[in-house]
Amino acid sequence: MPVPDDQRCPDPLPCVTGYEHRGCDRRKAGRKLGRRMTLAEVNVAMGLPSNFSTPCLKVEYAYMVRGNGVPLQMGRAIAEAVKVALGTAG
Questions:
Q1: In whole angstroms, how far apart are CA 13 and each of 9, 30, 61, 80?
Q2: What are the tens digits of pLDDT across the range 34-75?
C-alpha cells in the first residue's frame, strides 16, 4: 500500500547502498549530497543512532553492512506484518 501524501518526507534521504565506501560515486546516494555520506549519516538514514558503531569492521565493511541491510523501521514493519499474517500479533 502506498504511503499517504501527508506522511511522505518532502526531502527524503538518498538511498543507501553497500557501495558507498567506493568514494564519491555520484550515481549512488552521494549524488544528492555531492559527497560520500558519512557513517553517521548512513546510520541515521537506516534508522540507527548516529553514533552506532561496528568497531570490529574496517570502514569499507561498515558501509557495506549498513547498505546491504534494510532500514530498522522497515524491518520492524515487515516483522509485524508477518506476525499479523501468522495470527501471532500482540
A1: 9, 10, 21, 24
A2: 777 889 988 988 889 999 999 999 988 898 888 888 888 888
Is residue 56 assigned to a domain? yes
Work out how many domains the chain is built from and give that number.
1
Q: Dig out the grid coordinates for 80 from the structure.
A: 509485524
User: pTM for this one?
Assistant: 0.63
How far is it, in rounded angstroms, from Cα 17 to Cα 29? Answer: 7
Q: Domain residues for 55?
A: 10-86
* CB within 8 Å of 52: residues ≥ 6 apart: 43
Classify residue 51: in a domain, yes or no.
Answer: yes
Report whether 63 contacts 18 (CB < 8 A).
yes
- Inter-CA distances, 62 with 40, 52, 72, Å: 11, 11, 16
